[in-house]
Amino acid sequence: MRLEVLGFWGGTPERGGATSGYLLHLDQGVLMLDCGSGVMSELSRRMAFHKVRYLILSHLHFDHIADVGILQYGFNRALRNGWVAEPLPVLAAGEPRVFWDALQSQEAHWEEIDAAREYAILGAKVSFLEVQHTVPCYAVKVVDRSERVFVYSADTAYFEEGLVDFVAGADVFLCEATNFEGSVHSVGRGHMSAGEAGRLAAAAGVGKLVLTHLPSDGNFEAMRQEAKAEFSGQVLLASEVGWWKFR
Ligand SMILES: [Zn+2]
Ligand SMILES: [Zn+2]
Question: How far apart are the CA of 210 and the centre of ligand 1, in A?
Answer without folding.
Answer: 18
